[in-house]
What we know:
- By secondary structure, the chain is α+β, with helices and mostly antiparallel strands.
- It folds into 2 domains: about 80 residues, Arc Repressor Mutant, subunit A (Orthogonal Bundle), CATH 1.10.10; about 110 residues, Arc Repressor Mutant, subunit A (Orthogonal Bundle).
- The protein is globular and about 55 Å long.
Amino acid sequence: MDNLEIRSTIEAVLFAAGEPVPAERIALVLGTDTDEVFKCAKQLADEYSYQQRGIRLVRMGDSLQLCSSPEFAQSITRVLERRKPPKLSQSALEVLAICAYFQPVTRAYVDQVRGVDSSYTMGLLLERGLIEPCGKLDVTGRPSIYKTSELFLRTMAITNLSELPKLPDMSSGDGVAQLKSVIDALKSDETEQMEIVN
């Protein structure tokens, strides 16, 4: 199968799926390896971007997905007459940050870090698909453990967790100020990113 045929097949599969598809699954069906699938997907993504097309091909971890271009978010919203999703509350952002930076986490761990009960907030994030259960802790009671989802990666416009901003060194005197500036920057971006995804 030549490069053009692989790219066309990837495009067709992702369009039909409407959700993330593991590259390994595509490679298996095409009889090639995942590196070749990622290479062809990158070429396709670059082509969409260069031609300023209305769609983008994004990589989220080991999966690929077609989505609309961010610059057309307002037009899409107006045409489809969808209500804007409610913004995440400060407590939801806190829980999401804890899950993102310290995953996998239990609800008890999140409660301990925040100093308050987080069960409602974690339920909300689960409902929105930003976090997901990823197993049980092997201790008495077998509490569930959670991690961020592929939707989280897409919402944050990153392909993997290593692209998250680094946490400042809290042992230094200016660590708190640095952390506050990072949080403020993320807050200003959060509204735009949530609108792009939804």
